[in-house]
Amino acid sequence: MLNLCWMDSEGEGASFLKDKTRNRWCCFHHRRRQHQCTQTETKIGLQTTQKNFSKISPTIPILLLFLLVSSSICPVYSTETGNLHANNQTFRLEDELQKLKIIRERLKKINKPAVKTIQSPDGDIIDCVILHHQPAFDHPQLQGQKPLDPPERPSGHNPNGMGAENFQVWSMSGESCPEGTIPIKRTTEEDMLRASSVRRFGRKPRRHVRRDSNRNGHEHAVGYVSGDEYYGAKASINVWAPRVSSPYEFSLSQMWVISGSFGHDLNTIEAGWQVSPEIYGDNYPRFFTYWTTDAYQTTGCYNLLCSGFVQTNNRIAIGAAISPISSYRGGQFDITLLIWKDPKHGNWWLEFGSGILVGYWPSFLFTHLRDHASMVQFGGEIVNSRQRGFHTSTEMGSGHFAGEGFGKASYFRNLQVVDWDNNLIPLPNLRVLADHPNCYDIRGGINRVWGNYFYYGGPGRNMRCT
After folding, report:
1. How distant, in Å, are the alpha carbons of 32, 70, 73, 407, 439 from that of 63?
2. What is the average per-residue pLDDT within 450-465?
């Protein structure tokens, strides 16, 4: 369910929205040319890429002409130097044109025709797309099909009504998507140009994955169960807006449903909230999903950025900002997520709040997860890029250590798993792990109200974390 404790949601929402434009940035800054005669050319390239790509193609001849003219009027100290300079200009132009071509082709696949468009107060554009036109149905095994009917819920799961569905900023506009459509956050050229790799846009970085690994700068504070067969998991996740100190870092809180050897055959299903300036261009916590079948190498993606997750709900936009959020020593807000395997068809379904079905991951996407999960993990993750040789100050959770407790530290509560007979049961043996406890830590517990729970998080760089 949604839990909102003595909170001024109007005031929180206002402060949540106020800094949208200030957080925007441009990914082309690091590409500025050193040679004087190419600075103008770069400026034109910047202006072009910031427009709709459908308007870029007619400018290509102009850019080529400009390149020839600028090459002829720039000082050339020798024939060899001039030729080298001209070749470098040509290569740069070809690289930029190739990148723009890739972006245009990718945007055509991601952004589907909309029957209605909604402008969110935070600047997002939400497209209402016919349900069977969403990106998932580009998959060969889904083409021509329609979404499945709702599955049987796990026993022991007793949703009380439908719960609140206006937990996202875009719904504050008062607009909604019609029945038979789903809301999809529109992906823009700016989104793709922010990415560290255009070709891998929408995917997590390639990395070797182990539960206790911090390779490639990924650091965790998690609770987990393993050693059995799991068919789902449920938790309520406290929502905050942690500070992320670098555009290419992120901070997230999520559930992982995992199977495989933690090598290249790792299968995961993931859902929660994240702050990622690289993906979204701001510092708002956003509801997200993820999946992979090969340890983040070539399969899977965030949200609906590839053919995979099939959304069935017309009121929740995956990738959209969450509001309200928790405040230090103030109101606390959490979201409840349930992931479980449909006993009849074998697909993995996602439910939000009290009975709101979001959609499902088809079982054919996976190898090991076609059968069951071998581990379930809950908790926080950040990326530490160690800029200037120091540990990042990117926060996890609330940005405060677990020992501060309720209202100050972030939490997961009411942790459960789904067993082989489709029953929701308490965690049999919850373990907790923080791979950098001086930077981010975790403390578990159990009581009658919260069941299995833990507090987790931290500020990152501090006197004990350098």
Report:
1. 17, 10, 15, 56, 49
2. 97
- Give the Cα separation of 278 and 266 in Å (integer): 25
What pLDDT does residue 26 have? 33
Return the CA Rg of the chain: 24
Q: Is 124 exposed, middle or buried (0-12, 13-18, 19+ CB in 10 A)?
A: buried
Give the pLDDT band (50/70/90) at residue 166: confident
Q: Is 57 helix (H, G, I), strand (E, B) or coil?
A: helix
**CA–CA distance, 68 with 91 (Å, rounded to integer):** 13
- The Cβ of residue 444 has, within 10 Å, a number of other Cβ atoms equal to 17
Instruction: Cite the beta strand spans of 353-450 per DSSP E.
Output: 356-361, 373-383, 410-418, 424-426, 431-434, 441-447
- Integer CA distances (angstroms), 398 to 133, 148, 159, in order: 38, 38, 28
The Cα 76–Cα 85 span in angstroms is: 9
- Six token digits for residue 231: 């068919």
Question: d(Cα 71, Cα 90) in Å, to the nearest integer?
Answer: 10
Is residue 411 scored above 60 in pLDDT?
Answer: yes
Asked if 231 and 418 touch (Cβ cutoff 8 Å), the reply is: yes
Question: Contact, 441 vs 221, CB < 8 A?
Answer: yes
The answer to whether 211 touches 375, Cβ cutoff 8 Å, is yes
Q: Which DSSP letter does residue 375 get?
A: E
Cα atoms found within 13 Å of the Cα of residue 423, Cβ hemisphere only: 6
Kindly list the catalytic residues: 270, 381
Q: CB count, 10 Å around CB of 36?
A: 9
Burial class (CB in 10 A: 0-12, 13-18, 19+), 371: middle
| Token output for 408 | 């100050």
Question: How many angstroms separate the CA atoms of 102 and 391, rounded?
Answer: 35
Tell me the residue ranges of DSSP E strands in 362-426: 373-383, 410-418, 424-426
Question: Please, are residues 20 and 282 in contact by the beta-carbon 8 Å criterion?
Answer: yes
Say if residue 324 is preceded by a cis peptide, omega within 30 of 0: yes
CB 276 within 8 A of CB 248: no
**pLDDT number for residue 29:** 37
Q: How far apart are CA 279 and CA 296, in angstroms?
A: 16
**Cβ–Cβ < 8 Å for 314, 147:** no
Pairwise CA distance, residues 124 & 13, whole Å: 16
Residue with tokens 């723009």: 100
- Would you list the DSSP string of 15-27? HHHTTTGGG---T
In angstroms, rounded to a whole number, what is the distance separating the alpha carbons of residues 107 and 67? 28
Strand partners, 339: 233, 350
pTM over 0.90, yes/no = no
Tell me how crowded residue 15 is: count the other CB atoms within 10 A of its CB.
Answer: 13
